[in-house]
# Entry
Amino acid sequence: MSEKKSLNSLIIHPDIEPGNNNYTTTNNNFRSKFAEEGVHLDEAPIVRLEFQNILRIDYLWMLKSLRKLTLAHNLIEKIENLDQLTGLNELDLSFNKIEKIENLDELVNLEVLSLFHNKIRKLENMDTLQNLLVFSIGDNLIEDYKEMAYMRRFRKLRSVSFKGNPCCDDPMAYQFLKSALTRVTYLDYKTITEEERESGKAIFRGLLRKLDEADEKSEKERIAKEEYDAKVEFYALSFVEYLSGPELLESMFEKDPDGSLLLKVGGELLGFYEQYKEQYVETMAGLVEFAQEAYNARQHEIKLFKDLVNNALEDSVQKSKEVLEEFEKKKKPLTEAMNEVIRKFSTKQATIEQLEPRIVDLGESFNDVLYELWKSLMTIEMQLYERCEESRVQFSVNMTEMITKLMEVSRNAFGAWRENEAVWSMRQFESLSKLLGNKVMLGDAPAELFEVMMDRDMMMNLVAQSSDNHMRFIDAREDLLMTRANNWRDDLVQGTNDNEIKRNRDRILEINYFIDNQREEWTDMQMGLTEAVDPETVALLGDDF
Amino acid sequence: MSVVKLASEPVSTEKNLEMGPMDTLLEVNENVASKIFDRPLEEGEFEEISPRIFSLKDVKESLTKSSLNNAIYELGVVNLCWPEISEPVFETRTCFPKSYYTNSAKERLLLAYAENFRRQFQFHYRARKPLLLQAPNECGLQKMVCTTIRPTKLCYADTNTWQGIANLVADYFDYEPLKKPMLHPERLMSPYTAIIRRSGNPFEIAHVLVSWLIGAGYDAYIVVGCAKRDVCMAIRYRTVCPDIPDESEIVEEVPPPEEEPRYRLVPLPDLTSKYCQQMNKKEEDKKQNELDKIENERMRKIADLEKPPHDEIDGWRTHAWILVLPGSMGVEEPFFIEPSEGNQYPLEAKQYQHLDSVYNHENYYVNLQSCDNGLNSLNYDLSDITCWEHLLAGEPFSRRQMVGIDTADKKTAVDTEKHLDVPASWVEKLDITADEYEQRYPGSHKVIHYKKVVLEKFSPYSQRDGIVKRVKIFDDYALTIPLITYEWYKNRVDKMETVRIDHVKRQVLERFGVGRRDHIIKHVYSMDAPAVSVEGDRTLEFNYYARLDHLTKLVCSPLTFDEYYTDRDDRLESRMIVYIEGTKAEPKRQMKDITETYRRNPSIPAKDDVFKKIFHIQDNTIELFYHYAYNFITNNTRSYIKPNLAETGGKILYYPEKTSGYIADPCAKPPRPLNIYYALCENMDWEYKTNKHIRDRETDINGYLKQRYKELTEPLLFVALFDTERNEAAKKGWKEQETQKAEVTEREKEAEIDPLAPYLARMFGSGRGTGAPLTIKEATLVREQCINDFKAKQLARQNLVQERFDTLNSEYKNKRLWYLANQFILTPEKESAYFAASAELAFKVHALEVRLTRHKDLSEPRYKILMEYLDKHPLLKDYNRMRHYYGVK
# Structure
């Protein structure tokens, strides 16, 4: 638990710049403030624990908003327990005894990583650190400079420090680094010139080409995957993901072993299968197109509604601000008058009895002004709420209507699919019946299939099973679409209503809070006056506040 | 009218108190104006007598020679005898081309034709004004008006459109009204002379304009007719000046949303009384009606008084202007151009009352239609012979409609083709030089008086300060009380483009082009403000984009100093400083408050984003206002009373009782004292920096103002690099270059090579060369040596070339032989290699051959030249004489 203790006493407050934290000379104000407030572990963005003889990394999970962590010059042997610090941007583990890079997978936002002066032999386990910008691996035990080709995968990497590894004695090491890490601009904090890169390239041509090819391949795969994901995501917004193209149908057959087994019969069947696929694609294309249009229409609808609400809100805020300004103007003379009274009293020009009617007067008029303010602010807010209500209802009705329409179309489409399925099933059965028991025709079929085709019952069973499977699959997909669309609508409508209610409540709370605050301020002023006076007078004035 | 109203407003309201509302009478007084512009052309000098002959009066006076001449002139009789004119002189011009003082045979024929036409016309239309068919030119020779038009294409940037040409003509000439306003001009000098003179009567100017318009491709005609007095006299002080810049702001209307909004706010219940509203409206309407009535009455009076005075011969004043017909250069509707103004007028313009005839360089058309319903009621299809009487039957090609005529048949071709047409013009080409074009105004300067406005135009570079146009607007017709002056500048080094001086508000507005070092684009200042101090009323606007500090605007006044920024990285939007006046002890003004506002920074929450900082310097406090969060109507505030640094020894200490604040969010946690403390430190530091910044800024601005003052008092004009006329430095450079070149050629001439020099040097040492002639013996020796050497050299060269030629030639031949022997066993590569090599060889051989022949050709003349030279050589004088004497070759 030694770490814990040192942690508490040594966290430096976020706003102090690292180079500026000179404990002895910083005036005592800072320290006393710390003492008063305690340390807010969950808000600290920067933690430095250097020269602390720390043996293990632990208990850091409580530093939720940590962005920079420095654990340099300790005795850490293993990277661990950093999984919770996902917001970490900078990690300094230099001058430790780390032997293996590990457990960094969760730190996806890491940009600066220093492992200077450790005992690392191999670069590994860093694939998820795609945002890495600066990396220091100097003074470690890397024997083979070709290891460093690992760094090529970091597309944002700009600076690498490498000096001090055993393989640095090899003159080829730097040549290789400069030519292989094409995206890195600074090596050991020096700019890599174009000539250096070129000369390196000449030496390692073969190796580099291999690396380049591998990179290119993985890059292409990555782009294709990203594109595909983006497309799916886009279709998912309109609830028709995976419905364009034949892939869903194919996956349906894949999931259904009986069906795919029967398909192996080939011949006529394959033609029917193709036909089925074509019909399916056609039906679904219609649905997808409609869903896209519906999606655009919905977005437009949402935008219209949001615009209206936001404009109304803006107007009301503007109006309220004007009202407040008005209030400030009215309040000013009252405050001045009150100050005048206080001045008179404190300079003993008048006694409290003489001033009392004046104070009461002022208090009353202030209360009037305040009440006026409250009333107008509340009116504005109530108007806003009520004026938007009808649109809100209208909006939810429209949304429901749109979703219903979409459902209808999708029901039709799925119905068509089912029909296609039925046709397919029938054709399949027919063509299979023709082949039933025909040993010659089935000569080259797999053994399992052959067996099935020999027995009419078995075959019929299989066909029925496959058809059942398919129907279930279709139902599931349709259900998914329906539930998602409905949920989406419910969330949207409910969310809109909830938000509006919350906004309304927040505003009313704010208004009242402000009014209370003003009143309190006024009371404080009066209290300042009456503090020195006997409690009787206070009791007398007390009614007003 | 609007200008009248605008201009007369302030004065009339002032006078209202004393004289009542109707005293515009005093302002609108034609006499005042005429006194002011007591121009000779207004009264006198004009014989406003009614013409005697054609107005069908009884001529009672006796028939003397002069009255006969007058009758001839008034009737426009064409003189059919051809006077001999020798050495014509007109004003300062003496050298005229022959065509100016003689008529060619075809011109004579045309004139005879015209006279015939005139007589017939006179016979048929006795009541009409005589036609203008001819007029004596500057040499006193009668010329048919159509031949006076000389179509010319001007090659300047803006002379491709009628607007450009018309403006050029309007600017280029001084206008001379006709001496006898009801009659045709007594002379019609050639447009060429008019261009030289730079002034002319309306007919002459119209001829220039029509020549250029036709040259530019327009279907343009001169119109002879009658116009109003103001037009004929070029009086413009009853017209509104067209050059007054439009200062009304352009209001951009937001286009209404395309589709019906589907969602609507529920309207608030309207609780006001309809009845009351109606009554109020009635009341207001009534009031407005009364006001309108008074206003209308006033406007009517002004219009009444501004009307031109009664003209006795209205409808009889002869004038010439331009008609442009559609069909070419994208003209779609016929319209008029007034040459003296350069403006376009629609056909229904009231100022043109009557149209007698139109003509261009091809034909003359007399109007047969009545002009009583305005000129727009006429039919402008000139080919319609029921509306237009043609002088020449031979229509110009463009108008001819060849229907059913077989031009292949010679006889019909002659019948259709051969009519009399207008001969080529007798006038020289009407080009003007680039210089004249740029100079534009007669004497580089033109003044036009409009209603309550004086417009002055200057040609570029003619004025020291680069002014090109000035519009002065006055409050009264007598031009005594200036209201606003607009000035336009060109080519100024300080990039000043326009100036607007408001004499009432005593305010000056200067606008600049981009590219100044201080990036000012607009400068507004009071005339009373000190010229080089920020403590006056002035506004400076900057081209913020070019400035590092992104300063957009500065507004200064004696006690405030406001800066406005755009798009700054630190989101500062404005900084306003309020001063208090200096006391006796400290005369300099002192800062009271500094207010800074910032834009919202979307990356941090509103509660931490400062919106406004106010430093109360005198009270020693700082106020901070934070931005409004979403759905909040109050914002966080924080105020500090600054600790006294002197007491704490420079340390900023924190006392919770010296700060107070309001947190808008009722659910938020109270702020931490440490953060409050940091904000205090930061802002105290910032206050110090701001103070420093303001001092720097004031120094800067004072510097700018000093610079401006210098620029205004000592204006400099910018000369383009390629301006050959004005670029003095470049001119000097050229001249130097030229002299240098001349010197070099001079030197080269002097340093002609003396082929004898090396032999002389060999014989006498290098000092020799200019002394006395050599003795005959020496001369023989030197000469022999020289000639022998020359011969030897020529021969050597020839041999060398020959030798090379032979080698290459034989090589070439060998190669060829080798190829012929082996051509069937060669690989394609080898074959192509051979072809390449042999082509190169052939080329070389050919080159040598050419050189050889050239050498042979040249060696003979070279030798001759050498001999001649030696024969004339001064040092060989004695020898040559001897040789000559003995006839030795």
